[in-house]
Write a structure and sequence with these properties.
Number of helices of chain B: 12
Distance between the termini of chain B: 25 Å
Distance between the termini of chain A: 29 Å
Largest interface: A-B, 98 and 104 residues
Largest sheet of chain A: none
Order of helices and strands of chain A: HHHHHHHHHHHH
Number of strands of chain B: 0
Helix content of chain A: over 70%
Structural class of chain B: mainly alpha
Oligomer: heterodimer
Shape of chain A: globular
Order of helices and strands of chain B: HHHHHHHHHHHH
Structural class of chain A: mainly alpha
Largest sheet of chain B: none
């Protein structure tokens, strides 16, 4: 500490007006950066609301898109249902597995836990398109066709590291006194996790889940190789299934047609509202759970 | 007595009556771990085995540095896409790094405590917007918006430097770099913010007590201590930039060759896979695209590993000075 303090003293010998000017310059640059970063956020907001709202109607949610992208009319029912089914199934799988993996690497350790940690680290850093390729060669090639199940597996693999990391972080923060308390009471370890540690960390885990879901809902790249997309309404996950990001992507590539362009923007608006909803809800839960002085 | 040995002693006491139940608990956890890890590792090996014909035909160096990608002639080389990935990531980093670090400094060092969370959450929202929405906005709004600027640069600097020359069709390496920069600002800003916030308070106060300005605090305390942490944040941002797929696919122009100028259309590793995979019906074409995915996998594992190493060093460094 004394080293940087004395360094600072040495460097403070410049005149005060020059120092004030530097202070100003720093503030101006920092504020300018913030404005620069928020311009796209505002621009996207204006773009989506200004152009996307036009497409919204009851029909937009209750009918399926026309077979020909350039034709007007129709809606995005199949994509909304497909996204909900695949993300829902992925979350149902990824949540218990992710929590179990985190508990495993905290509680048991050893070589398998090191392997788990390594694989989770790799998954967390993997571009989602690579996840798509993996699941393609594991599920699509093996079953011989694109399917909603393959899409759900890809989304689960994307959610998994987010949930493991969030749970692991919380278990690590569990108060040592609580841990020792459960041991002093002679509690079985599985009981300690099920009725003490996980409930204590629950709001944080829920936040992790919400953030994982908000990421998975918006993913496009891994679905190209797995769920593929579909112009028809289906509840059968064994068939190719449409999703909102896929629908936006395919229609945007045909945005020379006004109908495709409007459909893409309307869907984007709906998707962003859903994603931000999950994201903000997750943050809100995390904030509420923290003690008031740390908010 | 260390806490560990204390807890361990109690555990041996508790274990006697509950051995079987906790034994089952451990067994179940092990089972789940193996059930997840084995298929994921299998998936990676399996993916590699699909691409074996590509490696056999072109050799690993031949494929990686091959400059020509012509599916109809069964010629596959990854170089145009590696080039595109490096160029767009470099453009994105040049724009995003200073902006993100300054935002992090603004939040931790300049803003009053009450405003910090609000600003931080707003910046974080940029990270929540799906990639495909950035792509849509980039395609319909940003690309046309950037064109006059591109034309101005190509018409002046571009006449001297071929790397900045026209034509400027719109979708390009440059447009992709700009879109990606917007997407990685919140990542680098959030991670740098945590690094800066971890600066020991005593050191800041020491500089302030000597009459230092906030700039002096940043220059003599926050940046030197946070250097490796910010570097790790930047590298994690780079990893995201390298893997960004759909938004890039929508604004890069999709041309499978090395463009001469940053305003030329091109492809990145990730975007060529997304763009060509569903129509890949030439000999070895799907296998070659999957091989590109493996190249991307290797690059992103290396970059992420580097970030984890550097972050570990930062955590130890803070532990020492604090």
């Amino acid at each position: 500490m004394s080293r940087s303090a004395s360094l600072a003293a040495e460097r403070l010998r410049s005149t005060s007006s020059a120092r004030r000017a530097r202070e100003r310059a720093l503030e101006i640059c920092a504020w300018a950066s913030l404005v620069l970063a928020l311009v796209p956020l505002v621009a996207i907001g204006i773009f989506l609301i200004g152009q996307g709202v036009r497409s919204l109607s009851l029909e937009f949610f209750t009918s399926d898109p026309p077979g020909d992208l350039s034709a007007t009319g129709g809606g995005i029912r199949n994509a909304v249902v497909g996204t909900l089914m695949m993300t829902g199934l992925a979350t149902l799988v990824a949540v218990p597995v992710g929590i179990a993996l985190a508990v495993f690497s905290r509680e048991i350790g050893g070589r398998v836990a090191a392997a788990v940690r390594f694989v989770v680290d790799v998954l967390a850093g993997l571009p989602s398109i690579v996840v798509g390729i993996f699941v393609y060669s594991l599920v699509v090639v093996a079953t011989g066709h694109f399917s909603g199940y393959a899409g759900a597996v890809a989304l689960a693999v994307i959610e998994l590291p987010v949930i493991v990391v969030a749970t692991d972080e919380l278990l690590r923060l569990t108060d040592r006194r609580i841990d020792e308390g459960t041991r002093a009471l002679g509690m079985l370890r599985w009981r300690s996790f099920l009725s003490v540690f996980i409930p204590t960390a629950l709001s944080g885990i829920i936040t992790g889940i919400m953030l994982a879901v908000s990421r998975a809902i918006g993913e496009t790249a891994p679905l190209i190789f797995t769920a593929l997309g579909n112009n028809f309404f289906t509840l059968d996950l064994n068939e190719p299934v449409q999703a909102m990001p896929l629908l936006i992507y395919r229609n945007a590539l045909n945005s020379a047609f006004p109908a495709a362009r409007d459909r893409a923007m309307g869907t984007a608006l709906v998707l962003v509202v859903i994603v931000l909803g999950f994201n903000l809800a997750g943050r809100w839960i995390a904030r509420r759970a923290r003690p008031a002085d740390q908010r | 007595m260390t806490p560990g040995s204390h807890a361990g002693g109690i555990r041996t006491l508790a274990r006697r009556p509950g051995l079987s139940q906790d034994g089952w608990f451990r067994l179940a956890l092990r089972g789940v771990a193996l059930l997840v890890i084995v298929p994921i590792l299998w998936m990676m090996v399996d993916t590699f085995s699909v691409t074996v014909p590509v490696w056999e035909r072109f050799g690993i160096p031949g494929f990686v540095v091959g400059a020509r990608w012509a599916p109809s002639f069964t010629i596959y080389g990854a170089l145009p896409f590696i080039y595109g990935t490096i160029l767009t990531s470099a453009i994105a980093m040049l724009i995003a790094v200073p902006v993100a670090v300054l935002i992090a400094l603004l939040i931790t060092e300049i803003l009053p405590a009450r405003a910090r969370t609000a600003v931080a959450v707003t910046v974080d929202l940029l990270a929540a917007i799906p990639s495909v929405v950035y792509g849509l906005w980039g395609l319909l709004v940003l690309v046309p918006f950037l064109r006059p600027f591109e034309q101005a640069v190509a018409g002046t600097l571009g006449t001297v430097i071929p790397f900045l020359a026209g034509p400027t069709p719109g979708p390009s390496y440059f447009a992709a770099g700009v879109v990606v920069s917007i997407m990685i600002v919140p990542i680098i800003a959030a991670l740098s913010r945590e690094v800066f916030a971890a600066t020991p308070r005593l050191q800041r106060e020491a500089v302030r007590a000597l009459g230092g300005t906030r700039w002096d605090v940043i220059r003599t305390v926050v940046l030197p201590i946070g250097r490796s942490g910010v570097l790790a944040a930047i590298i994690l941002g780079l990893a995201r930039a390298i893997g960004e797929t759909i938004a890039v696919t929508m604004v890069i122009g999709n041309a499978p060759k090395i463009g001469a100028s940053i305003f030329s259309p091109g492809f990145t590793l990730a975007s060529v896979i997304a763009n060509e995979f569903n129509e890949a019906n030439q000999e070895l074409h799907p296998e070659a695209l999957i091989a590109l995915g493996l190249v991307l996998l290797v690059i992103s594992v290396l970059v992420n590993g580097l970030a984890i190493l550097i972050r570990g060093r930062f955590a130890r460094g803070v532990g020492r000075v604090a």
